[in-house]
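Case study 2.
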Amino acid sequence: MQNVTKLRGYPGGLVSPLLALSLSACAHPASPSFTLFGTFFPAWLVCAIIGIVIAIVARIAMIALKLSTILPFQLFVCSAIGLIGALLIWITWFGQ
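Prediction:
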């Protein structure tokens, strides 16, 4: 039977503090979040969803403007447009 106290080479006593440290930013009172449907919704997820919508709109615009036959690597282009849109929204709302 496999040793349960080890997780991918890390001792069991080291995994718990690492997981706690990685999740500690989520519980910070100043972390940006929205109240949607009675729960706290992380702001980065809202920006990611908006970025996905921007990428879909960019794809539809490329098809409508017949750029889909000219531009290579359309998945990367639309993903980059969505990422840029999401980051611009993040900087606009939560930038310092």
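The first helix runs from residue 12 to 23.
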